[in-house]
UniProtKB/TrEMBL annotation:
Member of the two-component regulatory system KdpD/KdpE involved in the regulation of the kdp operon. Upon phosphorylation by KdpD, functions as a transcription regulator by direct binding to promoter regions of target genes to positively regulate their expression. One of its GO terms (cellular component) is protein-DNA complex. Residues 128-227 form the OmpR/PhoB-type domain. It comes from Actinacidiphila rubida. This is Transcriptional regulatory protein KdpE. Its main location: cytoplasm. Pfam families: Response_reg, Trans_reg_C. InterPro entries: CheY-like_superfamily, OmpR/PhoB-type_DNA-bd, Sig_transdc_resp-reg_receiver, WalR-like, WH-like_DNA-bd_sf. Residues 128-227 bind DNA. Residues 3-116 form the Response regulatory domain. Signal peptide: none annotated. One of its GO terms (molecular function) is identical protein binding.
Length: 227
């Protein structure tokens, strides 16, 4: 059974989410402010965090940054803030998905399930896999990347993008598929996200990021990983 932490200062919304999540066999914890959220993640180790940005004691983006200092737990932002700049700030801070209020309960639950699938360790459902290249090694089961004898620190979004690509070696992965698998089902046209995060992966993993050997762009179509 997977555990979800709901962080919101609206008791009615927390109650509605808890009822719907428990009806679908999730365990649910709740926190009503940022400090409580940080303590709950450390104590309860949820599989997914559903986080409001407008908390009484601190901004939700600061909560995201605090969590990203030590955990890769998937974070789904649930907020009334609809400005593009605020969405980008939350995603850049380390959020995995962004849902605006008011929202459809079925859609939110689908995003929670997708986040759980993406965060499930590879070895839990299939044999552990290690992908080796000339310059770096990806341990899919441990969710770690090594280069030159040291761990490479990736953000959760960078890891999700890398994982999708290395699980499809030599195959073109379309832009829409990548966006939906990494950012969620509501995405499909934000190709600028892919350009930004692919550039970050290349800087961290390619020997020559300007002339990538492993992360190949197929213009107008998608990306391909070559081991």
């Amino acid at each position: 059974m997977h555990r979800v932490l709901v962080v919101d200062d609206e008791p009615q919304l927390v109650r509605a989410l808890a009822i719907n999540l428990r009806a679908r066999s999730f365990e649910v914890d709740a926190a009503h402010d940022g400090a409580g959220a940080l303590r709950a993640v450390a104590a309860r180790q949820p599989d997914v965090v559903v986080l409001d940005l407008g908390l009484p004691d601190m901004d939700g983006v600061d909560v995201i940054r605090g969590l990203r200092g030590w955990t890769r737990v998937p974070i789904i932002v649930l907020s009334a803030r609809q400005a593009s700049g605020e969405k980008v700030e939350a995603l850049d801070a380390g959020a995995d998905d962004y849902v605006t209020k008011p929202f459809g309960m079925d859609e939110l639950l689908a995003r929670v399930r997708a986040a759980v699938r993406r965060s499930t360790p590879a070895g839990a459902e299939e044999g552990a896999a290690i992908v080796e290249t000339e310059t770096f090694t990806v341990d899919l089961a441990a969710k770690k990347v090594h280069r030159a004898g040291a761990d490479v620190r990736l953000t959760p979004t960078e890891w999700h993008l890398l994982e999708v690509l290395v699980r499809n070696p030599g195959r073109l992965v379309g832009q829409k598929q990548l966006l939906q698998e990494v950012w969620g089902p509501a995405y499909g046209t934000e190709s600028n996200y892919l350009r930004v995060y692919m550039a970050q992966l290349r800087r961290k993993l390619e020997a020559d990021p300007a002339r990538p050997r492993h992360f190949i762009t197929e213009p107008g179509m998608g990306y391909r990983f070559e081991p």
